[in-house]
């Protein structure tokens, strides 16, 4: 019942967004995307997941693109992210190994394929400092 309710809410919001404005979700700022905007990128790990509450989303997207990287590259990026946010090496590793990597496996193993998959790009494997992920 909860999944059906969430699905109806999501459908309603997507219809409203198509007619009106789409909020841009940014960790650092919030703004409204104007009605004149023709392309709205939607980003999220679970958007192509083949599970109730998620599987019907893809029909709302004109194009789907996935970024594919080796697990060790993903883990290195996640470790950098959590260390940059102040977690100790041990706490970051615990968070990455107990939460982030299992979630990543769920997405990789349980999602519909994207129309385009970008992988192995050197620019994607670099950190914010321009150095290759290790």
Automatic annotation (TrEMBL):
Region feature Disordered, mapped onto this chain: 107-134
Entry-linked InterPro entries: P-loop_NTPase
Keywords: Kinase, Plasmid, Transferase
GO MF terms, alphabetically ordered: kinase activity
Taxonomy, superkingdom: Bacteria
SUPFAM superfamilies in the record: P-loop containing nucleoside triphosphate hydrolases
Biased composition (Polar residues): 107-124
Name assigned to this protein: Uridine kinase family protein
Organism: Salipiger profundus
The organism's taxonomic lineage, starting at the top: Bacteria, Pseudomonadati, Pseudomonadota, Alphaproteobacteria, Rhodobacterales
């Amino acid at each position: 019942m909860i999944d059906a309710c969430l699905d109806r809410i999501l459908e309603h919001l997507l219809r409203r967004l198509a007619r009106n404005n789409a909020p841009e979700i940014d960790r650092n700022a919030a703004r409204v995307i104007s009605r004149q905007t023709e392309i709205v990128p939607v980003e999220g790990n679970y958007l192509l997941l083949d599970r109730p509450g998620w599987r019907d989303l893809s029909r709302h997207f004109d194009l789907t693109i996935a970024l594919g990287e080796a697990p060790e590259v993903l883990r290195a990026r996640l470790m950098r992210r959590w260390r940059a946010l102040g977690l100790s090496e041990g706490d970051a590793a615990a968070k990455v190994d107990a939460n982030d990597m299992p979630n990543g496996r769920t997405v990789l193993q349980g999602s519909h394929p994207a129309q385009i998959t970008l992988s192995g790009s050197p620019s994607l494997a670099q950190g914010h400092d321009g150095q290759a992920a290790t």
